[in-house]
């Protein structure tokens, strides 16, 4: 059965990571960039759980690390959305080009 082989899950986690990196490069909206970063973090978390499940099933380290990644991703999303909201109130746009005006 293909679901019992780790390669399938590695490809899914690699696909998530690749989609996140591609989205981060190609998006100009700050919210789109935030979604792309979340995809990257989810791909990394899936990879840690996968490595733990298939190569060391008695150890919970992969799952614990994935929980840390989820917590970091949630706090990053909350802080970044707050910053984007304040930026939108000030500049009336969420485009990446408008960030260059903030250089000091």
Compact overview of the structure:
This protein has 104 residues and is an all-alpha fold. The chain has helices at residues 6-26, 30-55, 61-91. The chain has one domain (2-92): Helix Hairpins, CATH 1.10.287.
How is the secondary structure organized here?
Layout: H1 6-26, H2 30-55, H3 61-91
In words, what does this structure look like?
With 104 residues, this protein is an all-alpha fold. The protein has one domain: Helix Hairpins. The protein contains 3 helices and no strands. The chain has helices at residues 6-26, 30-55, 61-91. Helix 1 runs antiparallel to helix 2 and helix 2 (30-55) packs antiparallel against helix 3 (61-91). 12% of the residues are buried. The model has no long low-confidence stretch (mean pLDDT 91).
Question: Keywords for this structure?
Answer:
104 residues, mainly alpha, Helix Hairpins, 3 helices, elongated
- What's the main sheet like? none
Q: Looking at CATH, which topology would you report?
A: Helix Hairpins
Span between N and C termini?
57 Å
Count of domain modules: 1
Radius of gyration: 17 Å
CATH architectural arrangement: Orthogonal Bundle
The CATH first-level class comes to Mainly Alpha
Q: Name the beta content range.
A: under 5%
- SS-based class: mainly alpha
Q: Which stretches of 5+ consecutive residues score pLDDT under 50? A: none
Indicate the mean pLDDT.
91
Question: How many beta-strand elements?
Answer: 0
Q: If helices are DSSP runs of H or I spanning 4 or more residues, what is the number of helices? A: 3
Q: Helical content, roughly?
A: over 70%
What sort of overall outline do the alpha carbons produce when their principal axes are compared? elongated
Provide the succession of SSEs. HHH
């Amino acid at each position: 059965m293909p679901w019992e082989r780790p390669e399938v899950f590695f490809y899914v986690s690699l696909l998530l990571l690749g989609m996140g990196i591609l989205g981060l490069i190609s998006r100009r909206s700050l919210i789109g960039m935030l979604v792309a970063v979340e995809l990257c973090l989810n791909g990394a978390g899936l990879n840690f759980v996968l490595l733990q499940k298939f190569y060391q099933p008695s150890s919970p380290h992969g799952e614990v690390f994935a929980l840390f990644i989820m917590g970091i991703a949630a706090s990053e999303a909350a802080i970044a959305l707050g910053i984007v909201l304040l930026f939108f109130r000030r500049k009336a746009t969420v485009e990446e080009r408008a960030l260059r005006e903030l250089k000091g």
